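Hey,

Quick one before I head out. I ran the complex with histidyl-adenosine monophosphate overnight. Inputs first:
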Amino acid sequence: MIKAIRGMRDILPPETSRWQWVESVAREVFDLYGYQEIRLPLLERTELFARSIGEETDIVAKEMYTFPDRKGDSLTLRPEATASVLRAVLENRLEKGAGVKKFYTLGPMFRYERPQKGRFRQFWQINCEAYGVEAPELDVEVILLLMHILKRLLPGELRLLVNSLGCPACQMKFRAALGLFLINREGLCEDCQRRRTTNPLRVLDCKSANCQGILHNAPVIRDYLCPDCAAHFARVLELLNRFNVAYELKPRLVRGLDYYTRTAFEVAAVGLGAQDAVAGGGRYNGLAKALGGPDLPAIGFAIGEDRLLELLPQDFGQDLRPRIFVAALGEPARERAFTLVQELRRKDLAAEMDFEGRSLKAQMSMADRLGAAYAVIVGDKELEAGAAQVRPMRNFASPASAAANQEAVEGERPPVAQEKVRFEALVDYLTGKVRSEENL
Ligand code: HAM
């Protein structure tokens, strides 16, 4: 049997309904803050990522799925969305006009990393990008938006980590100081021995414990911020305080991508183990220009959807829609049931039936497995009397009673209030029942 590629997985029902729920909450909050969706290709020219994320980053140096297409052009499966969103914005002139331009995009990203808990080679991100405004108020609004989505979804503790990476002038001074600090240090990994001259900031992001130990007394960028960058960061922190957003200052937070300037942040979640970053982002004011575009201030974040899902309670987003199961006994009853199911669906009620002539007991088990709210029973007797039996299966508004119902199926079924409803009144009767329960 052919299996899925290592690090790439199928997301299957009923898990998919949890994903849909997360995405619908994210869309709702994006809409609240005025963001519009943008959908992008998964493939881009390799150059786009190499130039924006940076040649010395792990992502570009080791983790991209890059291949020549049939004409020999080098293409890459996107390892992240920021570069693609910006490419699309510039190509379609979406940055034009006054005010903040706000976009979000959802979808899979690809990085050839070593798979482990919370780390995949195809993973999903919920991305947010805002353009055109340099004010620190936008930084705070973007962080508030991120926390809004996460808090709507996650019951557990979140840690917001923040730092400022300064502007290119601050980074140049800091890079020189850090390079000097690293120049004679022994014990750096092979990559960092190279990076200390090519791009010393990347050493701060190295995953090796040895390198992290050596960095203990290294200079921190906060001490190299120019007055403008320091004032911008102070204002961001002041506003976070004003809105009671708890944060931790992380002077060594640089993030794994080269494009960041000024505010950078990550959200770590308690309970995720080693891969505890559930989201990350920051400003990238220089990227549009580096890609041949105009001067365009920019800021954004990405939430790791796979990790977010890991943190959600199992019953979160379960399908609570009341379903109707029509159980039919005998060929004439099945004919009647088939019509009834179509009539119910035409009224936007979710309805199912069995096509294979199973026993009543087997059909009621099917109804239970589907989590049906009502079973409609039709047999010869009902056809003759002109009325079907309607049996409430569970109180779907309470998941606890769904579990109790499950126990009842396995053990003794308690007596249920079954009603006879005439066939011509059945669709209206069920519509009324379902709608009133939906409004509970
Ligand atoms: P990033 O920190 O590389 O940032 O990724 C953002 C989030 O994606 C991480 O915090 C993590 O939750 C998730 N993630 C990353 N790699 C994996 C993986 N291999 N498996 C599972 N989840 C993963 C960016 O990608 C930037 N583009 C964010 C950004 C947007 N900055 C500005 N705008």
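Confidence is low (pLDDT under 50) at residues 395-410.

Talk tomorrow,
K.
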